[in-house]
Amino acid sequence: MAGTREDGGATRLLLVDDDPGLREVLRADLTDRGYEVLARARAAEGLATLEAGAPIDVVITDLNLPGESGLDLCARSARARPEVPVLVITGHGSLEAAVGAIRAGAYDFITKPFDLDVLDVAIARAVRQRRRPRRAAADDPLAALGGDSPAIAALRALVERVAASDASVLVRGETGTGKELVARALHGLSARRDGPFVAINCAAMPEALLESELFGHVKGAFSGAVEARPGLFQRASGGTLLLDEVGDMSLPLQAKLLRVLQERRARPVGGADERPFDVRVVAATHRDLRDAAAAGAFRADLLFRLDVIGIDVPPLRARGRDVLVLAERALAEQAARAGKRVTGLSPAAAERLLAYAWPGNVRELHNCIERAVALCEGERLEPGDLPAVVRAATPAPAADTPAADTPAADPLIALAPGVDAAGLPTLEAMERRYVHHVLDLAGGNKALAARVLGLDRKSLYRKLERWQREGGAA
Questions:
Q1: pTM of the predicted model, to two decimals?
Q2: Which letter, b or e, does each residue of 412-424 get, where b requires 16 or more Cβ atoms within 10 Å of its Cβ?
Q3: Which end of the chain, N or C, is more open, meaning fewer C-beta atoms within 10 Å of its C-beta?
Q4: Position 402 confidence tier, pLDDT thresholds 50, 70, 90
Q5: Which CATH number is correct for 12-131, 3.40.50.150, 3.40.50.2300, 3.30.1490.270, 3.30.1330.10?
Q6: Same fold? 12-131, 150-312
Q7: E strands, 317-411, where?
Q8: Is 81 in a helix, a strand, or coil?
């Protein structure tokens, strides 16, 4: 039931809005949905309620308030009650306001007019966020997995669930998605957190050298081995070993690795004795190892040993407005490093970042922002500061979709209402799907979506209202 906490009590909301009519209507509607609502007219009143220690699960505030603004309330609430998420509502939806709210500490941003069901879902997400044990950002192993999209929230939840296990984990994802960050989060959340975290890129060295690095060698084992050296399995003992790009390992070395994982003992190159180790193994790959195993390029028995728990890291293009959150973080880091006063993104630059498909994922985004900060001559990044390929981007699919041999498997047909008897989508259905895709990428910001679509806001609103009247998604 909406408005109910896990312990059976009602979710407690602090509503701050200076419009008495809207405040009362919203308070009554939320109360009808089972919430306990404290209503305040000004930011100072809301902050006083928080600072007094009132039991609040979520704050909902209007952006434009007399005196201190909703952004001020976000920032001061984050300091006074960091465990309480803040939802910001405004009728003046703009990308700058959304980014400003997030930077000030808001959990989510909702533009008027909004459906109460949308607010209900946002509150439920915020309550789940509040229940998750919080850590200081500097101490939170999950902090590096920035963003708040459903895809990254699901990833963080899965990492938290499996971190306590000692089972082997296979982290799958495209190049640049942050697979090593996932491995480090698994280590940081585990009972091994005080032990070493050791990573090796299996694609970065020849087979003989990789074998020596993994298992160690004795003195005189080969030319240049002037002294014995322990391998990474020994050096990572008590901690976590990341085998990055394990799919690029040769078949002979795969056989040796399989035996080591089975026996939990490693024999150094040139040595006679096997040495035990205590390591949690996390492997990472951008390849489809099941296809590789089927083709004989990867040992199926090693795959089963590594893939006890599988974690898929989503590509950046599947993470919607996380692009802006990560871009803002990278911008702040690069501006500080360069000693430049670059404070944010212009709306036009943000549109380009949202429209680009990011084949290189988070790594490419970081490189893009580093370049843009170096070229920027003002206080905000503009489209001209971005690489040409980003400036020229058109809206891209939100996620990979498998190729289909038949029209019925097309995601446009599967997801959009308005399919004709032959199984083909109508133009109206395709337009509706595309408009909602752009809205998703813009985080629900209709003003930004209208600009990306090349429509004026009124035309977009009319389309959405008509589709809702016809019974489609609004």
A1: 0.58
A2: bbeebebbeeeee
A3: N
A4: very low
A5: 3.40.50.2300
A6: yes
A7: 344-345, 380-381
A8: coil
